[in-house]
From TrEMBL:
The keyword Transferase applies. GO terms for molecular function: kinase activity. Keywords: Kinase, Transferase. Gene3D superfamilies: 3.40.1190.20. InterPro entries: Carboh/pur_kinase_PfkB_CS, PfkB_dom, Ribokinase-like. This is Carbohydrate kinase family protein. Residues 34-290 form the Carbohydrate kinase PfkB domain. It holds the Pfam family PfkB. The keyword Transferase applies. It comes from the Bacteria. CDD domains: ribokinase_group_A.
């Protein structure tokens, strides 16, 4: 069973600030903010939501079908996936754009400041989903606005059950858009901040949203995840990480675990537990695609 992963491929430029943002930003001077952070370390990693989710799902033994767009500088990313054995048939290249670029600065408290250049991602709607794409399940993750809207419609039209996970793309949509996404989706996932925004914009409580889909999952970082089904909440505790090194890509690792469980037909709570375990595994490694599996997913 294959999972179609609609989202971004990006290069992550990850920097570490050896202090705390809170010590450098004066709240009463936000209106004239002008700060600079010395970042002694810099690394460039393969990233983007679709890429990171595909990597996590592949580690677990799932069949990932990332659907995304890269620019003229994206050949190395495609080669990276081919070397891993990840199917690249739905990765489109545009020669007149850069691949999406993410600049992430993390402080000593694991707070992050991110700048994102979408580049080729803004043309992701040029990828079209059809019934014969070979996927039994899908996810609409952060991507270009038009792509997210159209891919949700196309997955629904193709009778492919899918997860709607707007992530950092959620602010692009108003209440009508978000209610429409929910009406099309099979499952919805958000973190706690995004969940509050989703509820506020749609006017729907978590309980109400969960009655319209097979499950709403609200991730809570190290605290785990709240799973809402048919208006009822179940808390799924987090997994203790071996170390807290880098939060970049933890949400995507969680999504990969969720998708693998759904691929396997596991109960939704077990899918969430897999997601929690993958997030804890990822946070102990630097970069979003540099960790390795240290457990047998079949035992979860």
């Amino acid at each position: 069973m294959a999972s179609l992963i609609c989202g971004s491929l990006a290069f992550d430029n990850i920097m570490t600030f050896s202090g705390r943002f809170a010590d450098q930003i004066m709240p009463d001077q936000i209106h004239i903010l002008n700060v600079s952070f010395l970042v002694p370390t810099l690394r460039r990693d393969f990233g983007g939501c679709a890429g990171n989710i595909a990597y996590a799902l592949h580690l677990l033994g799932g069949q990932a079908l990332p659907m995304a767009v890269v620019g003229h500088d994206g050949d190395g990313y495609v080669a990276h996936f081919k070397q891993l054995g990840i199917d690249t048939r739905f990765i489109k290249k545009l020669d007149d754009h850069y691949t999406a670029q993410c600049m992430i600065t993390t402080d000593m408290d694991n707070n992050q400041i991110t700048a994102f250049h979408p580049g080729a991602m803004m043309q992701a709607h040029e990828n079209i989903i059809t019934k014969d794409c070979g996927a039994a399940i899908g996810i609409v993750a952060p991507d270009g606005r038009d792509a997210m809207l159209q891919h949700a419609e196309q997955l629904h039209a193709a009778d492919i059950p899918f997860v709607f996970d707007p992530g950092q793309g959620l602010p692009m949509f108003d209440g009508d858009d978000l209610r429409h996404f929910i009406s099309l989706a099979t499952w919805v996932t958000v973190n706690d901040y995004e969940g509050k925004m989703l509820s506020e914009r749609t006017g729907l409580s978590f309980a109400a949203i969960s009655t319209q889909v097979q499950g709403l999952m609200v991730t809570l970082g190290a605290e785990g995840c709240d799973l809402w089904e048919n208006g009822e909440r179940t808390h799924v505790p987090g997994i203790q990480a071996a170390a807290v090194v880098d939060p970049t890509g933890c949400g995507d690792a969680w999504r990969g675990g969720l998708l693998w469980g759904l691929e396997q037909g596991r109960p939704l709570r077990t899918c969430v537990e897999l997601g929690n375990r993958m997030g804890a595994l990822k946070i102990a490694a630097r970069g979003p695609q540099n960790y390795q599996l240290d457990f047998d997913p079949a035992t979860v």
